[in-house]
Amino acid sequence: MQAKKSLGQNFLKNDTIIQKIVSLFMPKENDLIIEIGPGRGALTKKLCNLPSKLICIEIDEDMHEYLDRFESDNCHIIYDDILNNNLNDALKDYSYDNLYVIGNLPYYITSPIITHLINSGVNIKEMVFMVQNEVANRFCSTPGNREYGYVTLFINYYYDVKKELFVSKDNFNPVPKVDSAVIKLTKKNINYDIDESKYFNFLKKAFQHKRKTLKNNLTGYDFNVIKNVLLTNNLDERARPEDISQEIFLEIFKSIF
Known about the structure:
Helicase, Ruva Protein, domain 3, 32% helix, alpha/beta
C-alpha cells in the first residue's frame, strides 16, 4: 500500500526503534493507552502485548486490512480524525487508573494534535510522540534559543517535555525530507491558580512579534509593573519574549492581573 502524502503518512520500519518507543512508558493492567495514527500497526502489535487496554484512532479507512486483525476485548480501533474526535466520548465506556497517549504524528499537524489533547480536559499521565526533529527542539527549548516560543510555553505549562530519541529519516518508508525525534511528555502536578485562558492570550500577545521587545508587544499593559518584574529577575527592560522563562512570565502575569 502506498503512503498517502495528503495525510502525511511515513511508516516507521525499524523494529528496534519501535521497541524503544513502546518501552518509554510502563502501563499497568488497569491503565489505558490511546494510539494516534496506528497506520499499518507497527506500534500497535507491540502495544497489544502490554497488560493495559488499547484504543487506536486512525483517520485512514484504507487501513482496515492492517488494523482489523488487532480488534479484540483489549484493543478497539476507531476510524476517525483525532482533531474531530471528542476524547471524553471515546473514553466514556472505559474505567482506568492512568491514561497514556502514543503516536507517530503527521508533521504538519503535530502542534494542533497536542493542543487538542491538552484542551480536551482529559487527564493524560504521559504522551510519547514521534515528531519532526525541529519540532522536538522547539518543544524542549529554553529561554535564549531561537526555537523558544509560545508553543514551548503552552506545552511546558502542563507537561515536562524530554527528547528521548533522534530518529534518522532513513528509518521511514517513504523517506521524508527531514529527520525525526521521539519526545515524552509527563504531566506536571502543579496548580498555578490563574485564569489559564487569560494567561495564554497574554502569552500570545507577548510573542506576536518575536523579535520585538516585550515592551513593544505588550502595549496596553502597565509597563512599569512589567519592568519591575524584569529588573527584579536581572533582566533588561528591553528584553525580548524569547529571553523570558515561564516562571517570570507567570510572575509578570500575576503582577498585572
